[in-house]
Amino acid sequence: MQTLLIFAHTFWEDSKINKALLEAAKSLDNLTIHNLSTTYKDNSINVESEITLLQKADKIIFQFPLFWFSTPSLMKEWEDRVLTAILYSSNPKLLQDKTFSIITTAHGEESSYDGHHGYGINTLLSPINHTFAYLGAKIEEAFCIFSANADNLPLSEYLAKLKA
């Protein structure tokens, strides 16, 4: 199974947590790490290139730090451009039967995302999951690293999620 990990981070240069995660992920076979933050420094997304990457993948994972209860803006731009192009293309079923999941990091404690402020983590991520489901992808449960700290990352759980 070929997995495509699509990553974005608004403050990539200063990242400690996600840099450590991606470094650990490099040890895995059948995994392509696609860092939107380094590929599209000018924010100009090459839609055809992105579709080619998606065609080769059996599993697609979005990885990002949770910013203001959502994705970094570059990842949202990727969704708008690439997924819209797929939907209105000659192959709108491109993502049919592929697997999609989310890995996200949050500085807050898990209790901050239990819904007592209005929405839990699964509700916050549901628009992304629904978008991929709408395009035919099978959705897997999200993996969130709460209270994220570069000195104490759950690397074995993270790598297992990438391999699953």
From TrEMBL:
From which domain of life does this come? Bacteria
Checking Pfam families in the record gives: Flavodoxin_2
What GO MF annotations does this protein's record show? electron transfer activity; FMN binding; NAD(P)H dehydrogenase (quinone) activity
Residues covered by the Flavodoxin-like fold domain: 1-160
Per UniProt, the keywords (alphabetical) are: Oxidoreductase
Tell me which PANTHER family the record gives: GLUTATHIONE-REGULATED POTASSIUM-EFFLUX SYSTEM ANCILLARY PROTEIN KEFG
Q: What is this protein called?
A: NAD(P)H dehydrogenase
